[in-house]
Design goal:
There is one protein chain. The protein is mainly alpha-helical and 253 residues long. The chain contains 10 helices and no strands.
């Protein structure tokens, strides 16, 4: 129970910092466009929000999976929280992190339903998620113990996200998921490149410094730079929009 609780705190921090910021910014605009019956711009805003969310969450998910033991050790390993506890909690964090992209995009989709004044579909979906989660818990806990409970949550999130997208497409038409998928492929390639740099760099730095914090921070910084550079080279649409937005804020006309 403690491993699940601490693992959920780590994922909850990521959700609070990155996911909530995007959904909070996008929801008023989606609500306004829905009230104006401007479906074309509404779907464009939805696609842009999903793309931006994915741009941030994909590398974070990979980084959390890759460095879960180090992250948990830095945050919690002291006093009664032993290395064994770190290992068990890190396993939970890794399985939760697998579903971080599902949970994140689902928040955008739910806000889309609220924007079009449909609260029934999210409610039914949430109830369905509970039943799917319970069923998977009972199925996976025997073979995977605490890891099975975390994996059940991840699978439940993925299944219910897919169901929400199917219903939303029926409600408002095509969502531009093909273009989003093309960007996701580029982000996935960039994420892989990030991991190929960050993991060996951490091992090298830790061998020299024998300290988790500076080794992790330097490896994470290098990985982030590689991720950004690869997305620029691959011309990921969302990265271009993010860079332009940052430049406009830094150098207002």
């Amino acid at each position: 129970i403690s491993a699940l609780s601490y693992g959920n705190r780590v994922i909850g921090f990521v959700t609070a910092v990155f996911v909530i910021s995007v959904t909070t910014a996008a929801f008023p605009q989606m609500s306004r466009l829905s009230a104006m019956k401007n479906t074309r711009k509404l779907k464009a805003t939805f696609a842009r929000s999903v793309g931006l969310m994915s741009l941030m969450v994909l590398p974070i998910s990979a980084g959390v999976i890759l460095f879960a033991p180090q992250i948990v050790a830095l945050l919690f390993e002291r006093g009664a929280f032993t290395a064994y506890d770190t290992q068990r909690t890190a396993e939970v964090v890794q399985y939760y992190a697998l579903g971080l992209i599902f949970f994140s995009i689902k928040e955008v989709v739910l806000n889309m339903f609220y924007a079009i004044e449909d609260t029934i579909t999210p409610t039914i979906n949430s109830i369905l998620a509970i039943f799917i989660n319970i069923g998977l818990n009972l199925l996976l806990i025997k073979s995977m113990a605490h890891k099975g409970l975390a994996l059940a949550t991840t699978i439940s999130g993925g299944v219910t996200l897919l169901l929400l997208l199917v219903v939303l497409r029926k409600r408002i038409g095509r969502l531009g998921l093909g273009r989003i998928f093309a960007s996701l492929v580029k982000m996935g390639v960039s994420t892989a490149g990030m991991c190929l740099v960050a993991a060996p760099l951490y091992d090298l730095l830790y061998g020299q410094l024998e300290s988790i914090l500076p080794s992790f921070l330097l490896a994470a910084l290098a990985g982030a730079l590689v991720y950004g550079l690869l997305n620029i080279l691959l011309r990921t649409k969302e990265m271009g929009a993010l860079v332009i937005g940052l430049l406009e804020r830094l150098m207002p006309s």
